[in-house]
Amino acid sequence: MTVTGLLGEIADVGRDPRRGGYSRHGFSAVESALREWFAEAAARRDLDLHTDRNGNIWAWWGRPGPDAVITGSHLDSVPGGGAFDGPLGVASALAAVDVLRASGFQPARPLALVVFTEEEGGRFGVPCLGSRLMSGSLDADAARRLTDPDGITLAEAAASAGLDPAGLGSDEAALAGIGCFVELHVEQGRLMDRLPGTPSVAVASSILAHGRWRFTVTGTGNHAGTTEVADRRDPMLPAAAAVLAARRALGSRESARATVGRLLPTPGGTNVIASVVDFWLDARAPDGPETRAVVAEVEAAAREAAAEEGCELSVREESYGGAVHFDSALRDRLAAELGGPGGAVPVLPTGAGHDAGILAARVPTAMLFVRNPTGISHAPAEHAEPADCTAGADALARVLESLCR
Amino acid sequence: MTVTGLLGEIADVGRDPRRGGYSRHGFSAVESALREWFAEAAARRDLDLHTDRNGNIWAWWGRPGPDAVITGSHLDSVPGGGAFDGPLGVASALAAVDVLRASGFQPARPLALVVFTEEEGGRFGVPCLGSRLMSGSLDADAARRLTDPDGITLAEAAASAGLDPAGLGSDEAALAGIGCFVELHVEQGRLMDRLPGTPSVAVASSILAHGRWRFTVTGTGNHAGTTEVADRRDPMLPAAAAVLAARRALGSRESARATVGRLLPTPGGTNVIASVVDFWLDARAPDGPETRAVVAEVEAAAREAAAEEGCELSVREESYGGAVHFDSALRDRLAAELGGPGGAVPVLPTGAGHDAGILAARVPTAMLFVRNPTGISHAPAEHAEPADCTAGADALARVLESLCR
């Protein structure tokens, strides 16, 4: 089946009527529907399904075993996200199996498809939840206590989705069985589209260092009509100063990123000076020190504005991961396999985080990118051309064939 | 019964566990419980209940009739509001009836207590909904189409609360019967508390002109990690510029107010550049031109920042009311009645909007204020001392006795 056909099967699952696009969050009814779709797709291909203690789903071609070749991605989305970020990697893995089956190929190494839990952190705030838990880079107790915007803990959400929260956490046995991991993903920038010949497929070199910091500015809730300027302690002002500082911090740093996409005034009434404003800074750069320098610059601006307004500021790191440089041997092998006689396949960095970036710390890991003609991602307009998707699945099939030979 | 005792009866209704304080919005289950409480309190006092076509509740002492004296306020709140804004005026009206009954007084004019619908505009965005609809200053068709944050229309909400939405709108018969309206309210600033002798009760002179403007900044939703500065069209930046401009606009305008207390990025993901940011400017000043000058200054700053970022800006007036100067004869009569031989009662302006400000355009209207020791309002910490509340209810009883003689 084609990748586009596979994505079409879930085109109506989890649409977000307010934001547009999809809102598919971890341990939700929508995510259950997507998992069920994957289970049925795996069953139609005679793959054996196994859900691990962190809710990651594995579909084995033949008997599970050591030194396995693993491919896959995630099915969850950001709020109001696109159709490709995540599902493209899962659908391409299924399509690659179809390609290999049609050619009569029989893998000589164990091979499995994987779907990771809550990669976007759209519900519980920590991205790559399933791969972080499995690899032990996120403490299980801390994870169980994470809350969603409605105050539901991750432990409660997992339990209500049928997953025992006591089982969450480091899964060394699963990790020990992985020989290598290859994740295919839609590119989330325009590097490929700007290259001569607009290649359909590229190999990843590295991922920016990346973290999320929660800023909480506390002022004094009060009446918007009666409170004189001298009596105002309005937390919205330091928050606004920080938003502008985040952009200024990028001025001299070409490869850094700083974004405030989530900002929540409490109580949030039109005629009410907010008592508290929470906002989240997403910061990334080629290395840790530069990432932290961006955060420090935003924090300094927020702190100065908070002091001026008589507000309190607290800043909490919600997640952080250093820069990832993918396994060079695996990267070169993929590039050579896909480059063919005609020329080289591009090898490109990305600013986007992935489960592959988490696993790269523990096992040889690589990524394939499929061209994104506009570069837009994390938005309803995210797109990849069907021909590029097919080329991506074919490339993944070639890579898997090579690795499993 | 004391005012404090009456407020105690509803102390647990509509508490907001997330924001603190109360969230009591129009046509909600919480508001129904408050209406039921008022109906029972009125029944215990042999007052005859009548709900009008706009959902305002009237409790008549004796037979309804022309040239009636009306007192009351509202029971709804802002999100996370205090216990006094609104309910103090309703509870004081009930307590004043008890005071007058205990003294054996029999009103010579028709007298009624009133509870107005959705004064804060906390759910449908338009403040003083019940009094605006009744007085015809809000078009009924426009009102029926108003939506709450969940997309529920006012017409649907009214119907589900048992009120025929077809009946909403101008109610000239009800207005024609009102001889005068007196609303008691907690002060929402610190003018009284800063006066020598910290008086318990004051009479209102005027209300600032006041409006709400919805700003919508549209950019391009995109990935927070991969989108380079040159490709960013982030609507959060013009929104932040506008928040800071709102404060700057107050610099030279001592009596003006400008507040952004509500700001909503869409989709609102941490790792997503927002596609749209909506925010609301609450602006007030002693007259219309100064209010509009404040709005124009904020809009100009937002427009400049939007152009710089490649975003679109639209601005929509959601409500506007000119300055209110309360009926001078009624104001002087109340001040003389309450001043007593010992001295004058203070006569003070306010920046807060009230149903009394809407009705003032149609019938002789006055307000009494009860001291607020911190000035805090529209927040959980809003407070009035029990002794001041009792003094307020006694003052209201004296005023009603004088007016109904």
Question: Overview of this structure, please?
Answer:
The structure is a homodimer of 405-residue chains. With 405 residues, the first copy, chain A, is of the alpha/beta class. The first copy, chain A, is 33% helix and 23% strand. In chain A, strand 1 and strand 2 form a beta hairpin. The model of chain A has no long low-confidence stretch (mean pLDDT 95). Chains A and B meet through strand 8, helix 8, strand 9, strand 10 and strand 11 of A and strand 8, helix 8, strand 9, strand 10 and strand 11 of B.
**Quick one: biggest sheet of chain A?**
9 strands, mixed
Instruction: Give the helix level of chain A as a range of percent.
Output: 25-40%
Q: Please, what is the average pLDDT of chain A?
A: 95
Topology order of chain A in helix (H) and strand (E) letters: HHEEEHEHHHHEEEEHEEEHEEHEHEH
Oligomer: homodimer
Give start-end ranges of low-pLDDT stretches of chain A.
none
The structure class of chain A reads alpha/beta
Termini separation of chain A: 23 Å
Basic shape of chain A:
globular
**DSSP summary, beta strand count of chain A:** 15
Largest interface summary: A-B, 75 and 75 residues
List keywords for this structure.
homodimer; 405 residues; alpha/beta; 9-stranded mixed beta sheet; 4-stranded antiparallel beta sheet; 15 strands; 23% strand
How are the elements arranged and paired?
The structure is a homodimer of 405-residue chains.
Chain A: H1 3-9, H2 29-44, E1 48-51, E2 57-61, E3 68-74, H3 87-102, E4 111-116, H4 129-135, H5 140-145, H6 154-160, H7 172-176, E5 178-186, E6 201-207, E7 209-218, E8 222-223, H8 236-248, E9 257-266, E10 272-273, E11 276-285, H9 288-309, E12 312-321, E13 324-325, H10 328-339, E14 347-350, H11 355-359, E15 365-370, H12 386-403
Parallel strand pairs in A: 3-4, 3-5, 5-15, 6-14
Antiparallel strand pairs in A: 1-2, 2-4, 6-13, 6-15, 7-11, 7-12, 8-10, 9-11
